[in-house]
Amino acid sequence: MAIDLRSEFQAPAVDAAADAARRVIDALVRSGGMTDADMSAIADRLNAVADDLEAAAPPVADRLVDMWRGDGITRHDPVAGPENPIAPPLEYSAVDSRTIEAVTTLGLPYQGPPSCVHGGVSALLLDHTLGVANGWAGVSGMTAELTLRYHRTTPLFEPLTVTARQVSVDGRKIRTTGEITAGGGTCVSAEGLFIAKHPPRPR
Ligand SMILES: CCCCCCCCCC(=O)SCCNC(=O)CCNC(=O)[C@H](O)C(C)(C)COP(=O)(O)OP(=O)(O)OC[C@H]1O[C@@H](n2cnc3c(N)ncnc32)[C@H](O)[C@@H]1OP(=O)(O)O
Q1: Is the pLDDT of residue 131 over 70?
Q2: Distance between CA 97 and CA 117 in Å, rounded?
Q3: How many domains does the chain have?
Q4: Per the CB 3.0–4.6 Å rule, which of 81, 107, 193, 202 could disulfide with 64?
């Protein structure tokens, strides 16, 4: 069963703009061999888009209140947020009442070693996915410790399965595990300690 991030506060046009920005990021990292003049013209066009967006942007304090409307899962986070162009974005499905997973394929913007996912990107995906698994299981918190083991390199351009499961809740301490697999093999495994605490949402 898919965990629907898009049911509340849907904004299809914003999602479409974020998808377009993802394309631009990917294409920029992939592009090679363009002349300086061509690339300067592209920079001008992208800056014109940024000028339009900045002109329409509210004060940051107002935007923060807007971003944190409601009490559901955010739409702007850097892993699963459909509104955030740096999010792949992951789309989670429930495996059982304490376990979630997402399948994603990452491209060159996420590269670390040649043709492989950057280790910090893997950490980001796992930190967030463990956090979402906690939310799905019903008790969530902030990351206090995150221990990662990089078993083998994580490939770009291949489907990756990112899984997380809440293992235990002991008072305010939540223990959660997860992994990134490719082709059935574990690339990265994670153990997290989360503390049940929630900073106030901007109002
Ligand atoms: C539905 C949700 C979907 C969204 C998912 C998003 C996932 C994203 C997750 C993140 O990335 S959160 C951002 C990264 N994490 C942080 O910025 C946390 C920064 N640290 C803190 O804010 C505080 O240190 C923390 C909230 C973790 C704990 O502070 P508290 O003041 O609430 O804890 P306190 O000092 O009362 O300690 C409570 C217990 O936790 C233990 N503890 C606290 N911090 C610990 C730590 N870092 N390591 C180990 N144990 C720790 C502490 O020893 C104690 O154990 P005992 O009860 O047995 O004495």
Answers
A1: yes
A2: 29
A3: 1
A4: 202
Domain of 123?
A: 90-195
- Residue 3 confidence (pLDDT) above 80: no
Q: Which of 142, 143, 193 to mutate to test the pocket of ligand 1 (most atoms within 8 A of CB)?
A: 142
pLDDT at 8 over 80: no
ipTM for this prediction: 0.95
DSSP string, 162-189: EEEEEEEEETTEEEEEEEEEETTEEEEE
Which string of DSSP letters, residue by residue, matches 55-122?
Answer: HHPPPHHHHHHHHT-SSS--SS-TTT-TT-TTS-----EEEETTEEEEEE---GGGBSSTTBB-HHHH
| Ligand 1 centroid – CA 11 distance (Å) | 33
- Tell if the pTM clears 0.90, that is, is over it: yes
* CATH label of the domain that carries residue 133: 3.10.129.10
pLDDT digits (tens, 9 = 90+) for 180-190: 999 999 999 99
Ligand 1 pocket list (CB less than 6 A): 73, 127-128, 131-132, 135, 140, 142-145, 172-173, 193, 195, 197
Mean pLDDT of the chain: 94
User: Do the domain assignments include residue 165?
Assistant: yes
In a domain, 167, yes or no: yes
Is 32 within a domain? no
